[in-house]
């Protein structure tokens, strides 16, 4: 699969080293990510929290943060009252509603529907469980709204152009207009595809995210990244397109398989590693509660993850630097998904192995100490996530796929690596290529 002329393989031969001290950005290749609320490039010391009343929930406007709370006893919320985290993007800002039983509160969804026509995009797994409930939430007391639905096959391997066309077919056959609203009901694949369809149909229509997996609730539904896969690489075709709102009904996790639950926790763990050490420490103490689906622990993990994601997106919507740090382990992980075959491993499983590889490389560079390496292995093992890629992966397979990664710029592969104390990372192309080569050989076949 590898091409000896690829920009990735060429960059491997360049001997570039860097000191252990954080480097300033240069040529748009390096970006230092400081811990949460401590980035001197932005004013993150402002916080704005208001109590908006039981009917509106508790709102956190994340151009800064709500109060940091680590004690699990503080995570309990009144039943039916959503926590609201706002993604602050000026006139395109939108709320993330988080809570139990939110699909039984029609006003939450209906206030974000534009026009009188709605298309719900879901899949064969989620439709029997929640499609009727969502249709009821959209139409109860709102007889002027008509709802169509399109049910797609379930799985990462269907995140492609052929399947995307089924959404367009339904929208066109239903004669939907520019005032219609698309609703994504499902996990990350459905959210990405529905969002991309909404961005493209009639050059852009409104859409709403209703994520039903941990992975989608803590990560993929927030921030406006939409798209589909290509057989040469994951998420290479898509657009940045923000939803009207994200509605996270934690009750939908009751039907989530254990493997999907664990997969989503990989993204939760990521937030702690790259920018929120206090959150990572909380995860270490509560990983068993999360695996056991403790409702308060899950609600807190989702809220804290969304706060981290919303804060980053508010500062860097189009991934010019800071937002790229959210992809810790993803360059290695996407190579696993592409090389091994879409759907063979879940996204979070591939990201978990990818994070171990990124941590290993960070340690080889001398940027982190042994304790972080051990802590990452320990929490991933407790979460029942893989700590190494599948045996089928070879060095050439990694190089070939990583050569077309979205973070390649001017022929140089940039990576997100940990640097310094827990909760610090860099997005950089300024590293010793020998360390990358050593990591690839340590985790895959020659």
TrEMBL record:
Gene3D superfamilies: 3.40.50.1970, Dehydroquinate synthase-like - alpha domain (1.20.1090.10). This is 3-dehydroquinate synthase, chloroplastic. The keyword Acyltransferase does not apply. Residues 150-262 form the 3-dehydroquinate synthase N-terminal domain. It catalyses: 7-phospho-2-dehydro-3-deoxy-D-arabino-heptonate = 3-dehydroquinate + phosphate. It is an enzyme of class 4 (lyase). Its EC number is 4.2.3.4. It comes from Quillaja saponaria (Soap bark tree).
